[in-house]
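Before a colleague's protein record goes any further, I have to sign it off. Alongside the sequence sits a line of tokens, each denoting a local backbone shape. I want your independent view on whether this chain really folds as the tokens say. Where you disagree with what is written, explain briefly why. This is what I was given:
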Amino acid sequence: MIAIIAAIDKRNALGFENKLLFYLPDDLKRFKALTTGHTVVMGRKTFDSLPKGALPNRRNIVLSRNTELELPGAEIYRSLDEALAHCEGEEQVFIIGGASVYKQAMPLADRLYLTEIDAEAEKADVYFPMVNEEEWREIKRDVHLADSRHPYDFTFVDYERH
């Protein structure tokens, strides 16, 4: 099964200058809970943005055209198709970014795990693809109001392909 996981603002913005737009501890906790023990696939810039390199307790796959690239704790493949070909049939694969990898993965994904943030980032330079309601149906919605640790309301929304 292929799932996409992302946090987006009201305009589908994902990030700015290779950083997340918002710091939401509960979103990071959800990301960890969903992806731990599974495979995460990401572009090289997303890997570079990780504070401690490869994510622990997950199989890390990085997409890069640079065949000489070596990243501790990660497997490198030249394309999403090549990476997925090296995943087992029962393996749970999470696509974790960036924008171009999300765009490539949308037609292949079975599930979307989105954190929809009720705010607009001041600056953004990468965006998540639009979710076509004819292709996806919402299966779960969990609303979280702003609090002392979370400056904005946000909603965890899960979708599955029709």
Summary: The longest strand covers residues 136-144. The chain has a mean pLDDT of 97. Residues 25-35 form the longest helix (11 residues).
